[in-house]
Amino acid sequence: MKVLVADDHAFARRGLKLFVAETPGVTAVGEAATGLETLKRLRHEGPWGVLVLDINMPDRSGLDILKHVLSGSPGTRVLVLSGFPEEHYALKMLRAGAHGYVPKNSTADEIRGALQTVMSGRRHISPELAERLVEELQAGDAVPPPPHKAFSEREFQVFCKVAMGRPIPYIARELCMSNKSVSTYRSRILRKLSLQTSADLMSYAMKHGLVQ
After folding, report:
1. pLDDT in tens, 7-53
2. Which residues pair with 61 in a beta bridge?
3. CA 1 to CA 25: how far, in whole Å?
4. What is the residue extent of each domain of the chain?
5. HSE (side-chain half, CA atoms, 13 Å) at 103
6. Residue 102: which region, alpha, beta or left (left: phi > 0; alpha: psi -120 to 50)?
């Protein structure tokens, strides 16, 4: 099975490439540094069995890339790697169609196990995340979820980038939106969170462990 590793950090990408190449069942490993390069390689050099995808790429979000992969390369399974807390990002990616999610601080054995699970055609979910899901189901409506969990995918993308201090023109370029649209989303997000400024939003994101 061919595996494509997509990560914008060269050192991490090459290390992952070497690691993936040693996984039983992998016949070839490719690499991509941007979302555009990822989609081009999937489209022109397939079929790829698995895409190991960093959630934060420089030119488009992991959610955007995931959507394009599912529609344009439906035979490719997607294992998401992220440096962000699992409980805040995993469910969004899994609900969007990812076949597995692994935090970057996982052990080598955990990452390899997740990759082999996805390669076998099954979905990977960590025991910790599974336990949190059970706890949420048991709690029911006793503890209302934080308001950011009700965001749409696009709202969540804009929210994360504003929370990281990215200026509106930069966010617009990354998400292929107009400055006006980004500003509209920002205003809507602030209203939903009952906040006033971008600084308030950054504090909220840090409090909930949504940004590093």
Report:
1. 988 888 888 898 899 999 999 999 999 989 999 999 898 789 999 99
2. 56
3. 6
4. 2-133, 147-207
5. 13
6. beta
Which amino acid is it at 25? G
**CB atoms inside a 10 Å sphere around CB 207:** 9
Helix axes 86-95, 127-139, angle to 10 degrees: 90
The per-residue pLDDT for range 51-82, each reduced to its tens digit, is 999 887 877 778 888 989 999 888 999 999 88
Would you call 91 helix, strand, or coil by DSSP?
Answer: helix
Tokens of 129: 């995340």
Q: Which two tokens stand for residue 137?
A: 């189901």
C-alpha–C-alpha distance, residues 195 and 69, integer Å: 35
Q: In which residue are the tokens 């698995």 written?
A: 50
Is residue 66 within 8 A of residue 55, CB to CB? The reply is no
Token duo for residue 146: 């934080």
Question: What sign has the CA pseudo-torsion 7, 9, 14, 19?
Answer: negative
CA-angle at 84, arms to 79 and 88, nearest 5°: 90
CATH of domain 2-133: 3.40.50.2300
**Which tokens belong to 95?**
């609900």
Q: Where are the alpha helices (DSSP H) in 22-85?
A: 35-44, 62-72
In order of 52, 53, 68, 73, the CA distances from 76 in angstroms are 10, 12, 11, 6
pTM of the model: 0.74
123: DSSP letter:
-
Q: Provide CATH code, domain 147-207.
A: 1.10.10.10
Length of the chain: 212
